[in-house]
Amino acid sequence: MSGPQGSMAESTTELFENAVRLHSRRLLAIARAILGNRASAEDVLQQAVLNLFEHRHRYDWRQPGGLLRRTVVNEALRLLRQPRMTVVADEHPGPADTPARGLEDQETVQRVREAIDQLPEHFRAALVLCEYENMSYVQIAEVLDCSVAQVKTWLHRGRRQIAQRLKGYMDGRRTGQAASATEM
Amino acid sequence: MSSLVEMDIELLEQYLDDELSEVERQALRQRLESEPLLAAELEQLESQRSQRQLWLSSLESDDGNAVRRVMAQVRGRYHMQRVVRALKLVTAAAACMVLGAVLSQVLGGDGESTQQPAVYQVALTDGSGQVVAVQRFDSLEQAQEFSEEVRRYQERRQRVLGGEVMLVAEQF
Questions:
Q1: Residues 43-102 of B with CB under 8 A from A
Q2: Interface with B, mutate which of A22, A23, A25 (most B CBs under 10 A)
Q3: Are A59 and A52 in contact (CB under 8 A)?
Q4: Pick from B61, B63, B71: which is nearest to A20 by CB?
Q5: Helices B65-107 & A3-35 angle (0-180, nearest 10)
Q6: What are the chain A neighbours of B10 within 8 Å (beta carbons)?
Q7: Most CB within 10 Å of its CB: which of A45, A156, B20, B69?
Q8: What's the whole-model pTM score?
Q9: Which of A34, A36, A42, A184 is CA-nearest to residue A110?
């Protein structure tokens, strides 16, 4: 391609590629959090990026974070709404790749993952956008196309359900820690 | 205060989510100083949040392969788009040449002006519905066959554009 139009198209593609490269790691994490092991996070990111690529000239790629997040979340939720979801291989990084080094931390991560995995997908999406992306309730409502009141409800119920499911495990840990302290 | 209500817990969650106004935050801080039960609940919520943070940070992969694979797919699609666009131009040019040859046969100046005008016509339209070419036929069967072929071609092209099938140049 040549001329001003050609170079504009090239630079849009370049900006697009840079934006995707810059945000991919976090986008993959968001997809993993919402999908659990119901579908491949990589496939979701790929499809979301391809969807955006088709219409890349419509968007401003200088501040693409919100658009990329919204597209990935929507693609993940769309996939989860499809019937006949099959469990895929666990794509989550192994213990060696995680900052959680200790055995206890690894077990906590596993327990939390199991508890979160049982939440409805909108609860998971709201939770990850709030606690991982540090988005405000208003921003989350925009991404999930719902009211702020709904976001509050989903977050509150999600957190309560996780706490309920982890209660036994945490009580056990606390008892164990107290016993170790007494022995010392 | 003897026990906490759900509203108190929601208030604490909003405090941790940084969703309270300055006035609300001040009011809550005062309550926290005078209500040990509320302060204990806040501590518990913070502890639960730190567990979730462990899980959230475990979702981040240091492996750049996934990103590279995604980018390779995007570039592949970009390349495919360019190939299809070029092919469309070639096909359009070929169609024009065939149409021109057919028209010159039908309307050719060999003096035989007594030829019967074609009775059946098939109009080719673009995406906006505008007629870009008209093909004439002597019989309805020929016209139907032609339009069926065009339909089949369009269908194949849509599947290629949708990425459903790969483009094999020799077969086009």
A1: 45, 48-49, 51-63, 66-67, 69-71, 73-74, 77-78
A2: A25
A3: yes
A4: B71
A5: 130
A6: 152, 156
A7: A45
A8: 0.65
A9: A36
